[in-house]
Amino acid sequence: MKTHQLLVLALIAVGLSACKQECTTGGTSKEASASAATREVASSSVSIECSEPSQPSPGEPPVTNPPQTEPEKPYSFHPLLWESVRSEGKAWSAYLHELIEKDLGNDLLAGSEDIETFCPRYHTLNNKQRVNFWGLLISAMTKYESAHNPLSRMQETTMGTDPVTKKPVYSEGLLQLSYQDIQWAPYCEFDWEKDKNLSPTDPKKTILDPYKNLNCGTRIFARQIRNKRNIAVKSGAYWSVLIPGGKYTKVTQISDLTKKLPGCQ
Questions:
Q1: How many angstroms separate the CA atoms of 55 and 41, rounded?
Q2: Residue 52 has pLDDT above 60, yes or no
Q3: The model scores a pTM over 0.70
Q4: Cβ-count burial of 95 within 10 angstroms (0-12 exposed, 13-18 middle, 19+ buried)?
Q5: For the chain, what are the domain ranges?
């Protein structure tokens, strides 16, 4: 090794020793030698820096890392009633929840004046849970309207003739709707011209399509909530199962089912 290289290494060692003492003891006895060593090393294209760890200024709180929070888990929807009896029930549920959340949230998610009859702790639920509640309520209505049977039909003997079909009024499908509804509810996509030549319970009928039926019926229901501010109403109800004290009322049975939603009680 050349003499010049040995000299550089010796100077580095002296500089490091001086810095170590200055940084750890804060003393001044080695300042001159450290400065000289630094100058010599600098002249040999080697630099040595000595610095103390940064400390907070007097009166400043120590720097702390923010607490780590786990990401919120996606909400898992509680099964709707038809899922246990219909193979296509999960698909109906997914469709209904999306319909409520994306299209009908303004009418439904705030609740109703009688909401605590059906879900006592409704106002503590988050939006996903509220969507789940309304889906459960609709599925409870279909339990008593059609037994979750999308091909269900019943003649309404007191309602005369359907102005669309020119035949006796029938309530049909999951939510027991009628062709005459298209006269005042434009969102009901029932087409009598397509259906009139099909058999009464043909699943190809537009009114018996479970998705068209749910879309129409749920929007009619949301309209009732918007206008009446109540789920159970004595007048102006489309469904007799929601008329308290009525001959066909199922208000108590429906509320017993919706209260089972986790978070409602």
A1: 29
A2: no
A3: yes
A4: middle
A5: 3-43, 81-258
